[in-house]
Write a structure and sequence with these properties.
Helix content is 31%, strand content 24%. The protein has helices at residues 10-14, 24-28, 75-83, 85-92, 121-130, 136-144, 156-175, 204-207, 220-229, and strands at residues 2-7, 16-18, 40-47, 50-58, 66-69, 104-110, 113-119, 197-200, 215-218, 232-234, 239-241, 247-249.
Length: 256
């Protein structure tokens, strides 16, 4: 089960990872009765197929705080710094990291363990090169395809890039029950199915941004209209403004 995407930072490489509040309950499902405040639990992390020991701490504070700890000298921290050597180097030199070069990991629960699907700079560059000749709608279709053998050839080293980003999209579709965020409708119910599509607010071909805060879930009609007319998205008011002045507000919004 996909939990969340974590951009690599100094804490992840040397200390541990703070667990977002909205997925803490999913983490606690791993343990009978959950984790009492102020206590820790031994856990196992799986990175590149290897298993490492770590702990989860649930802080005794009024704000729900939970963190995965492993320490700078631990085997898993050494492994992560090896995988994410680009970010580690940039941090050590106090350099800012461009958005299109930001390394990250997808965090999953599988077989009562936490799995890290690590996406390093080489994976990002290879995948971006793979999509250079595709237009924006083809790119969006590419990230939603279930069959990775259809229409495109995939190298093993870049498939995890697509896996993490597919799962981000699937989580958003589940969040909205495949309803269009503009019209609120579910397409296909009369046929026994639900059809929705992910749209990148800032086109992926220009932004290389697959984070959830750059994605809206739309019905095929509104998705096609937006690509046809390229409206401006007013993030503060949560609405698309079309060239002729027509405004399409988001009726549904749980994540932007």
């Amino acid at each position: 089960m996909f939990l969340f995407k974590k951009n690599v930072d100094k804490s992840m490489l040397y200390v541990g990872i703070a667990i977002p509040k909205h997925i803490q309950s999913s983490i606690e499902m791993l343990y009978c009765g959950g984790i009492p405040k102020g206590e820790t639990k031994d856990i196992q992390l799986v990175v590149d197929g290897l298993t490492y020991d770590a702990i989860i701490t649930k802080y005794n504070t009024s704000v729900e705080m939970m963190q995965i700890h492993y320490g700078a000298k631990s085997a898993v921290a050494v492994k992560l710094r090896c995988i994410f050597k680009y970010t580690d180097q940039q941090i050590s030199m106090n350099h800012l990291i461009a958005e299109e070069k930001r390394e990250y990991a997808g965090i999953y629960i599988e077989n009562s363990q936490l799995h890290f699907e690590c996406v390093a700079l080489d994976d990002i560059e290879n995948e971006c090169e793979h999509t250079l000749t595709m237009d924006e709608q083809a790119i969006e279709n590419y990230y939603e395809m279930k069959d990775t053998t259809a229409h495109y050839e995939f190298k093993e080293k870049v498939s995890k890039f697509r896996k993490v980003n597919q799962d981000i999209i699937e989580n958003l579709k589940q969040l909205y029950d495949c309803r269009c965020q503009i019209c609120g409708e579910i397409v296909g119910l009369e046929c026994g199915t639900k059809v929705s599509q992910a749209h990148h607010i800032k086109y992926f071909s220009k932004s290389l941004n697959n984070d959830s805060d750059n994605i809206v879930i739309l019905c095929p009609n509104h998705h096609a209209l937006i690509h046809n007319q390229n409206p401006i998205f007013d993030r503060q008011q949560k609405k698309f403004i079309f060239p002729n002045g027509y405004v399409a507000e988001l009726k549904l919004n749980k994540h932007l």
